[in-house]
C-alpha cells in the first residue's frame, strides 16, 4: 500500500481503507499519518478500533492526537471508552484541554452540552469593528465555524449574535453595539438533544450558541453535530417501528447474541399475540367446517387489514416526529382516516368481489351456486377490516403519546397483529350474517 497516496484522501475514506487492514498494519498506517490528520481520521473509526489503536500507540502520539481533536468529537469518543482508558487519555491532555474535556463530560449524558464545542468567536459590545476583526484573525483558525460573532457582556452572558457578513460590510470605526438588535436564539446546556434538533429545525440555523442556566455563553453546536443526532434518532425510530428494540451500536458492531435478544423479545410478544388468531379461528370452527371456501380468503382478509393499519401508523408517526401533528389533532386525523379507510376498503372490496365473480364465470374455480353471496361477503369484509385497520393504525400513536410513550413503538408488526385478530372476528361475523341459511 502507498501510504503517501492515502494522505490525500478524505479522512472518512482513509478510515475505511485503514479499517480493512490487519491489526498491525492498521496501527502502522495510522501512525504514518500527519498529527492533525490523525485526529480527523480517528473520529471516523468505530469505537472498537478507536480503543484498540489507543492501546497500541504511545502516550505521546495519543496526547498529540487528542489535543488536535475537536472537543465535541473527543467527548463523543470518551463516552464509549472504559473508565480507566478515559482517565488515562484525559491525563495526557494539556491543562486547558483537560479542563474543557472534564467540563463537557460533566453534563448529563443526553444533554446538548455533551456535543458542543467551546471554540467560537466572541466580542464585547463596546469594541470597534476593527477590534472584532483582529480578534477573528487571532482566534479564527481554532474556531469551529465563522458564521457568527457572539456578543457578551461583562459577566460573559450572551446578549446578541451578529453574522460575520454584516461585520464585513460595516465601517471599521463603528462599534459592535451599532450593529446589535439584541435578538438571538440559543440552546441551554441542560436542553436535551431532541429539543436542540427541534430548535435547529424551527430557526433554520447552521450553528447555535449554548448558554448556561444563567445565560453565560459556554459553547456552540453546529449542524453537522446535530445531523449525527438526527441520524441516530431516526435509526432508532425505524428500528422500533420495524418491530425490535433499538440497537445501541450499529448493526455491524452489535454482537450476535445481543442482536438475537433485541429481536427475540418483540418477536415473542408478537407470536403470543398471533396465538389469539388461532383462538379466533377456533371460535368460528363451525362456520369454517360448513363453508370451507371461507378459509381460502383468510390470508387475503387479514393481510389487507394489517397493510392498511401499517400504512396509517407510518404516516401518523412520521407526522408526529416532524411536529406536523400533536395530541390535539386526534379528531382531525380520525375523521380523515375514517374517510380514507372507507374509500380504500371500497376499492379493495370491489376488486375482491369482481375477482370471485370473474373466476367463477371463467371457470378458474367453482364457488358453487352462492358465488355472488361469497363475493359480497368478501367485499364487505374488506371494507370493514380495511376501515378498522386504518383507524387502529392512526389512533395507536396518539394513545401512546398520551401515555408519554414513544409513538414509534406502535410498530407495523404490532398494528398488523392487532388487526389480524380483530379482522378475523369482523370477517366471520359478516360471513355469518350474510351466509346463514345458505352455506351456513
Uncertain ranges: none
Return the structural class. mainly alpha
H-E order: HHHHHHHHHEHEEHEHEEHHHHHHHH
Helix content: 55-70%
**Quick one: CATH superfamily of the largest domain?**
SLC41 divalent cation transporters, integral membrane domain
CATH class of the largest domain: Mainly Alpha
Largest sheet: 3 strands, mixed
What can you see in these coordinates?
The protein has a 3-stranded mixed sheet. The protein is mainly alpha-helical. α4 crosses α6 (59-68), α17 runs antiparallel to α18 and α17 runs parallel beside α19 (371-402). The chain has 3 domains: 3-106, MgtE N-terminal fold (Alpha Horseshoe); 122-230, Roll (CBS-domain); 256-435, Orthogonal Bundle (Tetracycline Repressor, domain 2). The relative contact order is 0.07. β1 (122-124), α10 and β2 form a beta-alpha-beta unit. The protein has 20 helices and 6 strands. It has helices at residues 3-6, 11-19, 23-31, 35-42, 47-56, 59-68, 71-79, 83-91, 95-105, 129-139, 164-168, 193-203, 223-241, 256-283, 285-290, 293-296, 298-321, 330-362, 371-402, 412-435, and strands spanning 122-124, 148-152, 158-163, 187-188, 207-211, 217-222.
Amino acid at each position: 500500500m502507498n501510504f503517501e497516496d492515502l494522505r490525500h484522501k478524505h479522512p472518512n475514506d482513509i478510515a475505511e481503507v485503514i479499517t480493512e487492514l490487519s491489526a498491525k498494519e492498521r496501527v502502522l498506517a495510522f501512525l504514518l499519518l500527519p498529527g492533525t490528520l490523525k485526529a480527523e481520521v480517528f473520529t471516523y473509526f468505530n469505537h472498537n478500533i478507536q480503543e484498540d489503536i489507543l492501546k497500541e500507540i504511545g502516550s505521546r502520539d495519543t496526547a498529540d492526537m487528542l489535543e488536535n481533536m475537536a472537543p465535541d468529537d473527543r467527548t463523543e469518543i470518551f463516552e464509549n471508552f472504559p473508565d480507566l482508558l478515559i482517565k488515562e487519555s484525559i491525563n495526557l491532555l494539556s491543562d486547558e484541554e483537560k479542563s474543557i474535556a472534564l467540563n463537557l463530560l460533566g453534563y448529563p449524558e443526553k444533554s446538548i452540552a455533551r456535543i458542543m464545542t467551546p471554540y467560537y468567536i466572541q466580542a464585547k459590545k463596546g469594541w470597534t469593528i476593527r477590534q472584532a476583526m483582529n480578534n477573528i484573525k487571532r482566534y479564527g483558525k481554532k474556531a469551529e465555524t465563522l458564521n457568527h460573532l457572539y456578543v457578551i457582556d461583562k459577566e460573559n452572558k450572551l446578549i446578541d449574535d451578529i453574522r460575520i457578513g454584516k461585520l464585513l460590510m460595516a465601517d471599521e470605526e463603528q462599534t459592535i453595539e451599532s450593529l446589535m438588535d439584541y435578538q438571538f436564539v440559543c440552546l441551554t446546556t441542560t436542553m436535551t438533544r431532541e429539543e436542540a434538533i427541534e430548535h435547529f429545525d424551527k430557526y433554520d440555523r447552521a450553528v447555535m450558541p449554548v448558554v448556561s442556566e444563567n445565560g453565560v455563553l459556554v459553547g456552540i453546536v453546529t449542524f453537522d453535530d446535530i445531523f449525527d443526532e438526527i441520524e441516530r434518532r431516526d435509526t432508532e425510530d425505524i428500528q422500533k417501528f420495524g418491530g425490535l428494540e433499538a440497537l445501541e451500536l450499529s448493526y455491524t458492531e452489535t454482537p450476535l447474541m445481543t442482536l438475537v435478544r433485541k429481536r427475540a423479545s418483540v418477536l415473542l410478544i408478537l407470536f403470543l399475540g398471533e396465538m389469539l388468531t388461532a383462538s379466533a379461528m377456533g371460535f368460528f370452527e363451525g362456520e369454517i367446517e360448513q363453508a370451507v371456501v371461507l378459509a381460502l380468503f383468510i390470508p387475503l382478509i387479514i393481510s389487507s387489514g394489517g397493510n392498511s393499519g401499517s400504512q396509517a401508523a407510518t404516516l401518523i408517526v412520521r407526522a408526529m416526529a416532524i411536529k406536523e401533528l400533536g395530541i390535539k389533532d386526534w379528531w382531525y386525523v380520525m375523521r380523515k382516516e375514517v374517510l380514507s379507510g372507507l374509500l380504500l376498503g371500497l376499492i379493495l372490496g370491489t376488486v375482491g368481489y369482481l375477482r370471485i365473480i370473474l373466476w367463477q364465470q371463467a371457470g378458474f374455480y367453482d364457488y358453487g351456486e352462492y358465488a355472488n353471496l361469497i363475493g359480497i361477503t368478501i367485499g364487505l369484509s374488506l371494507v370493514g377490516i380495511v376501515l378498522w385497520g386504518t383507524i387502529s393504525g392512526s389512533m395507536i400513536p396518539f394513545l401512546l403519546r398520551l401515555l408519554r410513550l414513544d409513538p414509534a413503538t406502535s410498530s407495523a408488526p404490532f398494528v398488523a397483529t392487532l388487526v389480524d385478530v380483530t379482522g378475523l372476528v369482523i370477517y366471520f361475523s359478516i360471513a355469518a350474517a350474510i351466509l346463514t341459511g345458505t352455506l351456513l
